[in-house]
Structure formats: structure tokens, C-alpha cells
Amino acid sequence: MRVLLVSEDLPGEQIGGLGKHVVTLGNTLLARGHEVSILGRNDLGPGAGAAQIGFHGRFQPGFDYAHPGWKEQQLGLFNPLKRPYFARKIGRAIARHAGHADVVHYHGHLPLVGQYVDPALNFVQTRHDQGSECLTHLRFREGQVCTTRAPRDCSACIDARAGALRQGITAIAVNGYRQASARAFASHKTVFVSDFLRCQFLRAEPGADLSRCRVIPNFVDYARLAAIAAAAPEPVPGDIVLVGRIDAGKGFGEFLVALEGRLPAWASVSIVGDGPERAELERRHGGAQVRFLGWQDGQRTLARSACSHLCVVPSICEEACSTTVLEALALGRPCIALARAVRRNWPATSSILVSCSWP
């Protein structure tokens, strides 16, 4: 089967969880005899390609994603034109490169991309976060899970003091975005990585047609994880590992504050990842017992988790279907996380979804 994977998160020197997911899926499909390529950005300069991200197939640079901010922070509003502009750009790149592909599988942050691809194309997208209805993709604001459904309220994520005009423009952007997402879901096959995400979207758009949508948890390469676990040394008692982007909602700061004065002398914490909160947290909490290791590639990250005594996923936001949790458990490591968002039973195994058979 000829598969075209698409993501605006690729390539990159430091790819996050979604990008790693795409590369893992692509490499696994290649190993199983499929013909796989990745379509991504073309504006990251020389050296940005398959080798940089660890992909074993062909990388195709197809669209630019430079300067995606559109000065929304400065203007204090969400721009109704911004996200359709970039979604249309990705849709055009798919049209140019889909050619002989049997299936195009989009993993990204713009669910409305489905509006800008040929209805006859075998197109499926996977929704990894709350970006189907939330323009920040996270539904987390001022240290708390955001529960509002009123589009005007979304302006507070840009400027808490936004007046009626900016609130109104933001409402137009949010309403248009959600409605465009609903049209994309109705016209093409869509995967939500948890039922939580599906239900969250229906709360925002209760009349949406999700008959072409399915819930399938994130894919992890169990064979690869088993090999890493088998090669790992015996865990050191008290060795705690946290992996992820060090950012608001991910709970690293809250975890370290809660740990102050409680970490036994024989225990240690290693934090693998980077992000906007890293420097301040390292300044406040870094030391002999709390080490910040920075961003590491997927292989080294998994190897570090495999030899840990305990993995902690401290997110205080509502994680959709944490790959970090799945990987820790597949590596045979105990994993602790808050019981938020994913409350329904997960299947015992994840599935590779490419040639979806539903209508």
C-alpha cells in the first residue's frame, strides 16, 4: 500500500509527541512492507528532512508554515482568516503530492484541512488534541482546565481585558473554525485518539455529523518497545523519570513544588524535555536530585524511561491519550498520572489505521 503521511510538525530538530508519533507510524508501516512517504514543511532550510527526524522513508517538502502567528497576540484577538489560510495551503500541497497514494493520513493541528482536499481522495485525519474546537488545542487557561463553550470567552486566551469588538471578532473566528471542522469530519474519515476528544467536540458542536469518525487510541510500536525494555539495565530504586514538553498545563512545575521537602535522599528525578518553562524551573528546582536533561530523540528518551523505577506524567491539563503513558506501560514501567479526561476503558492494544474501511 502507498501511504502519504502529512504533518506541519515535520521536519524539525526537536519534534514533539505528535511528530514522533507520525515518524513511528511511518517507520512501522515501512517495516511491514508498505510504501510510505511524509509530506511536511519546506521552509526550514537545508538538512531538514528524513534523516533529521529519523524517518526511514522519503520526506517530501510541500508547504511553508512560516510566521504562523499573524500578530494575534499583539492585536488581542483570534483572526478569522488565519487558520483557513494555512489549512488551504496544506490542502493544496496534498493535491500536488497525493498522486499515486492509496491513502493520505493527516496528523496536524488544523482539522479544517479536510475541507480543502478532493472529496474523492481517500483521506483520513487523526485528531490528537482538543484542537478540533479549541484554537489553543489545549483547553487550559490561567492554570485551570477551560470549560467555557462560549466563543466570545475564547478572547481571554489572547487578552483577558479584550473589549466587545475584539471579543466579537474572536467569536467569528471560533465559530467559523468549529463549523469548518464539523464539515471536514462529515466529508472525510476522522480518528479521535480517545472518546473524550469526540465528546468534547460534540459539546462544542452538538449538531455535528460524526458518522464517519472512529475512536482509536494512539499507535505505539510494541515490538520496538519490547526490545528496548529487554535491553535496559535493572532500574535503580527511586529513579523517577518525567518526559514531555515543559509548558503550561503539563504540570512539571506543580509536581516539583509538591515534591519539595518530600523526596528521599536516595531518590532522584530526571526530566527529559524542553519548553518555555524549563529555564525557570531548572533555576528554582535543579540540583543533584532533580536533573533537567533537555530534549532527546525518541530512542534515547525510551531507553531512559525503560531503566527508570517510576514514570510520572504530571499533566494537570486534560490529556487526550498520552503516548508517554502508553509507552511507559509497554516498557513495563509503573506510571503515575492524574485521572483526568480519559475515563473510559482503552483497548488492550492500539491499531495502525491507514486504509479505513468505513464509509
Estimated helix fraction: 25-40%
- Number of H- or I-type helical stretches: 11
| Total number of strands | 14
The amount of beta strand, in percent, is 15-25%
- The averaged pLDDT comes out at 92
For the record, the count of structural domains works out to 2
Q: What class would the helix/strand composition place it in?
A: alpha/beta
Question: Low-confidence parts lasting 5 or more residues at pLDDT below 50?
Answer: 343-359
Oligomer classification: single chain
Shape: globular
CATH architecture of the largest domain: 3-Layer(aba) Sandwich
SSE arrangement, N to C: EHEHEHHEEEEHEHEHEHEHEHEHE
CATH class of the largest domain: Alpha Beta
Distance between the termini: 19 Å
Largest sheet descriptor = 7 strands, parallel
| Spatial strand sequence of the major β-sheet | 3-2-1-4-5-8-9
Radius of gyration: 20 Å
CATH topology of the largest domain: Rossmann fold
What features would you describe in this structure?
With 359 residues, the protein is α/β, with parallel strands linked by helices. It has two domains: 2-215, 3-Layer(aba) Sandwich (Rossmann fold); 225-337, 3-Layer(aba) Sandwich (Rossmann fold). 32% of the residues lie in helices and 17% in strands. The protein is built from eleven helices and 14 strands. The chain has helices at 17-31, 50-53, 72-75, 82-97, 164-187, 195-204, 222-231, 252-259, 278-285, 298-306, 323-330; strands at residues 2-6, 35-41, 58-63, 103-107, 123-127, 140-141, 144-145, 189-192, 213-215, 239-243, 268-272, 290-294, 310-313, 335-337. The strands form three sheets. A seven-stranded parallel beta sheet has the order 3-2-1-4-5-8-9, sandwiched between helices. A five-stranded parallel beta sheet has the order 12-11-10-13-14, sandwiched between helices. The chain starts with a strand and ends in a 22-residue tail after the last strand. The model is unreliable at 343-359 (pLDDT under 50).
